[in-house]
Amino acid sequence: MELKLINRKNTEDNCENTEELIKKEIIDIMYYGDKLEIGSDLVYYMSRWGEFMETNEKCGGPDSWLITFLRWAVKDRLEEFLDYCDMNSSIYTIKAIKGLKKVYSFKMPAGGAGLVRPAYWRMWGWLQNEAKILNFDNRYNSAGDKQTEVICPFCNLEYGEEIERYCEHFIHSGFPDNMEYLQWGKYDFVINIMKYINEINLKDFKFLTKGLKIKKYIKFELFDSQEDLEYAIRGASNKEIKIMYEHFISTGMNSAIYTWLFINDMKKVKWIFDDLKVVYDRILDYDQHHEKLL
User: Fold this and answer.
1) Separation CA 38–CA 78 (nearest Å)
2) Phi and psi of 174, rounded to 5°?
3) Are residues 93 and 52 in the same domain?
4) pTM given for the model
5) Under a CB-based contact definition with an 8 Å cutoff, are residues 274 and 190 in contact?
6) 184 lies in the same domain as 253
7) Is 118 part of a structural domain of the chain?
8) Closest Cα to residue 280, out of 211, 209, 216, 186?
9) Residue 61's pLDDT is what?
10) pLDDT score recorded for residue 244
11) In which region does residue 131 sit, left (phi positive, over 0), alpha (psi from -120 to 50) or beta (all else)?
12) What is the per-residue pLDDT across 254-288, written as a single tens digit (0 to 9) for each?
């Protein structure tokens, strides 16, 4: 989706996800810009509103900027906005819909009568009514809108398409080969390191990591499995590498594990894979000149 942001420099410095910055952006466009047509600009600002709503719902009353903006943005044109989002899927539409889903889930306080009911209607009730008429519940809670515990640990995007299309930290997901090896995307040579070491029955391990920074974390003489190596890699990454697991019960009550691999900042961990590639090449070179088993 191409954004034509109004009164806003599209730089990383202006994209910090802080509450004050979001508030300033929204107030600026609402009070100092023209009312936005349904399109990419409105989706962007709705996504910023959605980000704020993820951690905030006590907004201070019917006239707070959060509610004023929501009315300004989509009141009496929610259907048109949702149709646009469905036809132009992006990370921004996802965040915008998440914010709307949160508002839709709000409940009027128990015993909501007297002054409470009209105040609640002015805050959230009008949107819930418009959304209900549009069958919002079924529209965004179908089988295709999966609910799961798997969430990117770095940006909080959820399962499936959100992660695989829009998450910059996502590397790979799937069942490990033979239920044993985690897949490392373009660094899949990692899965062969322990396998090859065991096949050639290597006795002296020191030359594999000689002169490499990774030797501080990798102790092949102490490792028994690929799991040991993966644990060491995560330790060397200083929390930049995360592995998530989903557990399944298949037919016959056999359990299976589906893995998700995320890397926060590849630049910070590239040295790990560079060093491991050297280790891998040394293993192959050793075998070529000695055992020729690989």
Assistant:
1) 10
2) 150, 175
3) yes
4) 0.51
5) no
6) yes
7) yes
8) 209
9) 64
10) 76
11) alpha
12) 445 677 889 999 999 999 999 999 999 999 999 88
Residue pair 276/194 in contact (Cβ under 8 Å)? The answer is no
Name the domain boundary from 102, 120, 139. Answer: 139
Please indicate, yes or no, if residue 230 is contained in any of the structural domains: yes
CB 287 within 8 A of CB 195: no
- What does the pLDDT read at residue 7? 41
Is residue 151 one of the residues assigned to a domain?
A: no
Residues (pLDDT < 50) of the chain are 1-17, 142-148, 178-179, 249-255
The H or E element containing residue 99 is helix 91-105
User: In whole angstroms, how far apart are CA 53 and each of 108, 143, 167, 211, 283?
Assistant: 17, 24, 20, 50, 52
- Residues 130 and 198 grouped into a single domain: no
Residue 120 lies in a domain: yes
Residue 175 has phi, psi (to 5 degrees) of -80, 130
Structural domain that includes position 204 = 168-289
Last residue of a domain, one of 122, 139, 156: 139
* β-strand pairing of 255-263 with 241-249: antiparallel
Sequence-ordered list of residues with C-beta below 8 angstroms from that of 219, at least 6 positions apart, any chain: 232
